[in-house]
Design a protein that fits this description.
- This protein is an alpha+beta fold.
- The protein folds into two domains: about 130 residues, Probable inorganic polyphosphate/atp-NAD kinase, domain 1 (Rossmann fold); about 130 residues, Probable inorganic polyphosphate/atp-NAD kinase, domain 2 (Tumour Suppressor Smad4), CATH 2.60.200.
- Helices cover about 20% and strands about 35% of the residues.
- A six-stranded antiparallel β-sheet has the order 7-6-17-14-9-10.
- About 40% of the residues are buried.
Length: about 270
């Protein structure tokens, strides 16, 4: 078994001691273990320990999925929805991986086509108005279709397309429903819609969603898992489907999604 360690470099002083411990313990146990500094370092790995918050996990999730690398998250961030263990449980995480009697939870991703570019999102795709400089815009008008049938014309600050994993993130804050991880569905959530009938729409992840700006006075921002990847203008279309690859998370046998949800949302509200 080959093990990698990836950590948030913004907290290197805090995390380095844990990285050193992981490398030392796995070496003693006879496993190959190395620090991951770039995506190419993921090649050939079986398991990746990710030390950080949800943002850190999102940075490497799609790259791990492409290579079949399983992720085990250790929460050194704030929320930690995607992390399986808190820092004080690092020894338990090490034992779990070494024993090999863990469960693997597979999470679906969005495949996003914008022109000749493709992106992958574990959490969400956000199309929203620009608030910067000359590209500043007020509300934007977006036309959405699912499998060729019009869903709605949204006059809003933008829209969010989320996986079940991402339904507890920006979509939830914008009024979207929480989707259990095992559901074969995505959710489209308008951001501050200027219409009483515009509401979140849950739809099958086997469908194809297309979104295009209508009469956009300025380019819209395209954000994938919180990272700005480009813009889209009137006449252009974004297509969203379910990715073939899935992100695999190592999880303990006794973990329950709804218990974790209650704990994390209570932390959030404090």
């Amino acid at each position: 078994m080959k093990i990698g360690v990836y950590f948030n470099k913004n907290y290197i002083a805090d995390n380095r001691v844990y990285v050193d411990k992981l490398e030392r313990v796995f070496k003693i146990k006879g496993y190959e273990c190395k620090t991951v500094d770039c995506f190419d370092d993921l090649d050939g790995l079986d398991v990746l320990f990710v030390l950080g918050g949800d943002g850190t996990i999102l940075l490497v999730a799609s790259e791990c999925a492409k290579r079949g690398v399983k992720i085990i998250g250790i929460n050194y961030g704030h929320m930690g929805f995607l992390a399986e263990f808190e820092p004080e449980k690092l020894d338990d995480a090490i034992d779990l991986v070494c024993r090999g009697d863990y469960k693997v939870q597979k999470r679906s991703m969005l495949e996003i086509a914008l022109g000749d570019k493709k992106f992958y999102a574990l959490n969400d795709l956000v199309l929203q108005r620009s608030t910067v400089g000359n590209n500043f815009s007020n509300t934007v008008n977006l036309h959405a279709e699912i499998d060729g049938t019009t869903v709605d014309n949204f006059s809003s600050d933008g829209i969010i397309i989320s996986t079940p994993t991402g339904s507890t993130a920006y979509s939830l804050a914008a009024g979207g429903s929480i989707l259990a991880p095992e559901l074969n569905a995505f959710i489209l959530t308008p951001i501050c819609a200027h219409s009483l009938h515009s509401r979140p729409v849950v739809y099958s992840d086997g469908s194809k969603l297309t979104v295009s700006p209508k009469d956009a006075s300025a380019p819209l921002v395209v954000a994938v898992d919180g990272r700005v990847e480009g813009t889209i203008e009137a006449g252009e279309t974004v297509t969203v489907t379910k990715a073939v690859k899935q992100v695999e998370f190592i999880t303990a046998e006794n973990k329950n999604f709804f218990n974790k949800l209650l704990i994390k949302l209570n932390i959030w509200s404090k």
